[in-house]
Amino acid sequence: MVERVSDIAAFVFAHGDEAEEIVFGEEDIGVLSAEENDAIDRAHAHTLDTIEAILVATRDAFAEKVKGHACAKNLKRGRTRRSTMRKNRSVGMPLVLGDASASITMATWGRATMGIHIGMWTHARHVQAVERAVKNAHLDLQVWQNDAGNHFVTAPVPVAGESIDDVAERVGSIMAQLARPIVDAVLANKKEK
Amino acid sequence: MTPEQRAFLDGLVARIRSLPSVDATGSTAERAYDLDTVRTHLIAPWRSIVDRLTDSVDAQLAALSSDEHARLRVLQESPSLLAPLGLARDEVTHSRLLAWFLAQKDDVGETCRRSWLGLVGLDATLPTDGWRVSRERDLGGHGRLDVHVEIPGAALVYVEVKIDAPERKNQLADYRAHLQAHRGDHPHAKLVFLTPRGHEGTSGVADVRLGFDTVVARWLPHAVGSHPTAVYLRAWLSALARDVLRQTGAPGADWSLNHRNGALRLLRPPGDAHG
Q1: pLDDT of residue B17
Q2: What is the pLDDT of residues B23-45, one digit of tens each?
Q3: Which residues pair with A68 in a beta bridge?
Q4: Would you list the DSSP string of chain A?
Q5: Across the interface, which of A3, A43, A149 has its CB nearest the CB of B24?
Q6: What is the mean pLDDT of residues A16-43?
Q7: CA-based nearest residue to B158, from B174, B269, B271
Q8: First-to-last CA distance in chain A?
């Protein structure tokens, strides 16, 4: 199991947009040498192992941080398989069944570098209540919303030498800060309706 | 636990702990992946690799046929109708649009229907007389299905769409049970799980894992005409490519290598289905 971010994984994260084509691309790049293609396969396996380790550790760190809160109630339902995490470079977890879920995704999403995107999906009927709750929570986070009104925080990708536990700690902490007011708002909104 | 079992477990734990650590910066991990090879043959020549790949992609774009150029322009120039409405990744909206295009009675609708049959693993020449499409169909205790397609006496297709939301527990299994119980005299019955890139459902019981990437690639040729349905189809497919697949950039923007190669992939239709 990977315990620390290598210089190779950090390089791939920092060159996300290009890496999407070179390291994560599904087609063989015809213009490369056999040695380069072999190196790509090795970098791909190593980076995916690193991503999987980060996703698993962050999911666990998040669960630990929201212990006792309503967020924690459904976390163990529908747990994403490791093979799915590797394929999608993402892990999802239910927060309020059918009404709210959290996800961690390591992707570029059109940016030059990769990010660790923490997403909070809520059903459309809760979006306004959740927007108010996040605003009123005065979180010390750079929260952004997608077109559907769902809330995200993009954490910087790990740097070389950072331990997986440290990454999980910082990302899990952001997730917990964001999830608590959102889940509270969803549950209150459900009660009202 | 007996003392013997405890001793066995303690011994096992001690043995596991004594194994060499597979740390990414440690020697075991370095050997396992041979990261030196990666440093020499990937990291050091990275710029050269990017340049060669960029040249290759640009050469392929320059060699596109006029039909392919027309399709590329759809992706490069069509504005998204959904983003200003805050619906760019809204599953219900995309389900409604899919159902709407499948139900159109004009030539564009017919070509979409024919290629759709192939995408979901059915014979594209099936007679489509009486073809019925409905959306958000209530399946009683089995949930609410996004898109329901019926060709009387020929085929029944259930489509569940997911973009950002996770699958409800046993959702596909519930739909599968309903489909089996209600297939009646339809010789073909298909459960389709439609996601951005053909992901497998948690319960893994869909007949077909279909990606929006495949839908875009297959339907792009139908979106280049001047028929009103084609004009609307352009806007939808372009929005899917940009907002759901993140495969292309905004209209008029300087596309990155990733976007240019992504567009190339959409211009070359992949296989019909992943599953």
Answers
A1: 47
A2: 444 445 556 788 999 999 999 99
A3: none
A4: ---B--HHHHHHHHTHHHHHHHTS-SS--TTS-HHHHHHHHHHHHHHHHHHHHHHHHHHHHHHHHTTTSGGGGGTTTTPPPHHHHHHHTEEEEEEETTTEEEEEEEE-TTSSS-EEEEEEEE-GGGHHHHHHHHHHTT-SS-EEE-TT--EEEEEEPP-TT-BHHHHHHHHHHHHHHHHHHHHHHHHHHHHH-
A5: A3
A6: 88
A7: B174
A8: 46
Provide the pLDDT for residue B253.
Answer: 83
Cβ contacts of B128 within 8 Å, gap of 6 or more: B110, B113, B114, B151
Whose tokens are 């809330």? That residue is A151
Most confidently modeled of A8-12, A91-95, B265-269?
Answer: A8-12
Burial class (CB in 10 A: 0-12, 13-18, 19+), B50: middle
Mean of the per-residue pLDDT values of chain B: 86
Contacts of B199 in chain A (CB under 8 A): 84, 87-88
Using CB atoms, pick whichever of A6, A20, A107 lies closest to residue B24: A6
Evaluate if residue B274 carries a pLDDT over 50. Answer: no
Per 3-state DSSP, chain B is made up of helix, strand and coil in percentages (nearest 5) of 55, 10, 35
DSSP secondary structure code for residue B32 in this structure: H
What was the ipTM of the complex prediction? 0.89
β-pairing, A100-107 with A90-96?
antiparallel
Judged by average pLDDT, the poorest of A34-48, B18-32, B108-122 is B18-32
Do the chains contact at B41 and A36, CB–CB below 8 Å? yes
- pLDDT > 90: what percent of chain B? 58
Q: Do B22 and A1 touch (CB under 8 A)?
A: yes
* Residue contact A43–B92, C-beta within 8 A: no
Q: How far apart are CA B270 and CA B217, in angstroms?
A: 7
